Amino acid sequence: MDLYQELILEHSKRPQHAGLREPFEAEVHHVNPTCGDEVTLRIHIEDTAEGPVVEDISYDALGCSISMASTSILAEESIGRPLSEVLTTFEAMKSMLTSKGEDPGDEEVIGDGVALAGVGKYPARVKCALLGWMAFTDALHQSGRETTLSQKQSEEGTS
Amino acid sequence: MTEPSSTPFTDEEVARIRADFPILTRTVRDGAPLVYLDSGATSHKPVQVLDAERNFYERLNSAPHRGAHALSEEATAAYEGARERIAGFIGAQAQDVVFTKNATEALNLVAYAFSNSPHPGIPGSERFALREGDEVLVTEMEHHANLVPWQELCRRTGATLRWIPVTDGGRLDLSTLDELLTESTKVVAVVHASNVLGTVNPLDEIVTRAHDVGALVVLDACQSVPHTAIDVAELGADFVAFSGHKMFGPSGIGVLWGRSELLEAMPPFLTGGSMIETVRMEGSTYAPPPQRFEAGVPMTAQAIGLAAAVDYIEELGIERIHAHELALVERLLAGLATRPWVTVVGPTDLESRGGTVAFVVDGVHAHDVGQILDNAGVAVRVGHHCAWPLHRRFKVAATTRASFAAYNTTAEVDALLEALDRVPQIFGVAS
Asked: What is the CATH number of the domain that holds B159?
């Protein structure tokens, strides 16, 4: 079935950047109370002359293939990139996942995330796919970072 | 619930039963016929129940126990008639049957009747006062609805929550009772048939020993009343809670049965209109049971719908329903046993067993299993089924659960097994 793209199965079997690492500025624990999926996630952000950069996302996750793959994709697509770009990716992921299948996702913006496009058609699974991402934005919040793009960043990010 | 004294429905009989459930003819997910194996979550409703509700709204609609006009009188008679009908089904007196929103509310009604002091206006309510040093005993296999209200009660009163552990085989470890059930125990809250494992608990021993130490027994009978003959007098529990929507009845109605003398001594939970005797600005006195526990305009149409569901069950024969469901469980367990990549969580025999089967596919999360089944039109429950501690005890995040009703067929069990075989293929685990 179209939900289980090969890419999702690969990510869920071999989650990229898995494991909890140091250094980190914030650690959060998120659960999906309907199914008991859990993720512990740490972030390490460094401020550079060009703005904050996501140096590391490390995690320990237990869950279905969709939530495992999505968290793996989050790490793979985000590590080493400017935070503003990662937030643009997050917005695009969220938009795709909550579009009820209307938004197929832009590979230029969300990379491997497009493999999760099929999730949009299954509202019960959207939470699974967002679990790691929500943990990531919560960790940003807890470390005192902005979790939404300013208007300017948003325009730059999508241009 | 062990030895069905009757026979499963024949294919022709099941076909006739299915014709009463319009929803069973629909398709899901691009045209797959619906294979509904989630009646443990909620059952479907036969036209007889839908008609009864519709007839109420078309012919009798008004607020019972209020006003003296003709419609109100007829609605009151229909509502109280439903109470008698449902009471009769469980071997109870009508005045001992309280209507609630659902079983969760019924259990909360009992838990919130307890507090840290007796109610000054209700003689005998010392029985419902708990203090530090008192204990509430539950089990590790409780649904959250029969666990969290007791956790909250303990928090409010300073009482201590204890629990009976579950064995690897999915049974209560009653060898712990000597230690756990003592003079300090004031309440024993236990599930009759587990909504996950399917285990039917040995009530006789628990009830006897609880009563020996003076504890009250609160029974969650959500997964037993719809599937097996229940007589509250025989059960011996002090309170029995169940919901209507799992037994072909409407949503929005549940039942709490309680012993007359206990209901008499029990402080109210939800307060307001129609549960009072007199109201003054300084304070109020309360109506006798069951009205004391039914504040506000009640769910009249739903009570009438549930009475119609009881009629429907009795027409099919509860013994035959039980036999039918057990035959389906046996077929499913046998099918799962030939698939070494499946592990059943709960008893794998039919001894003291109800109509739910929970399992895990090794290496695949239950959500993913459910998705593959759903794609084939097979509706099962996935997750922790509101029994998270039980899942922790078995060290699984989630299970896949099939649960049965009278309208299910052997072909549907086979459809589940066939769809299940796609899981190891898709996820590349050993099969």
From this structure: 3.40.640.10
B359 shares a domain with B297 = no
Q: Out of B367, B375, B427, name the one closest to residue A9 (CB).
A: B427
Note whether A1 contacts B372, CB cutoff 8 Å. Answer: yes
pLDDT category, A159, cuts 50, 70, 90? very low
Alpha-carbon gap, residue A108 to A100, rounded angstroms: 21
Size of interface A-B (CB pairs under 8 A): 54
- Among the candidates B278, B295, B313, a domain finishes at B313
> Which of B364, B367, B391 faces A128 most closely, judged by CB atoms?
B367
Task: Please determine, for residue B1, whether its predicted confidence score (pLDDT) is greater than 50.
Answer: no
**Structural domain includes residue B2:** no
* Distance from C-alpha of A138 to C-alpha of A145, rounded to nearest angstrom: 10
Report pTM. Answer: 0.93
β-strand pairing of B378-379 with B356-361 = unpaired
Q: Using CA atoms, how far apart are residues A54 and A4, in angstroms rounded to an integer?
A: 29
Are B268 and B109 in contact, with CB atoms under 8 Å apart?
no
Residue A159 lies in a domain: no
pLDDT digit string (tens) for A113-149? 999 999 988 888 999 999 999 999 999 999 999 888 7
Q: Which of B382, B87, B155 is nearest to A125 (CA)?
A: B382
Which has the closest alpha carbon to B251: B122, B429, B100?
A: B100
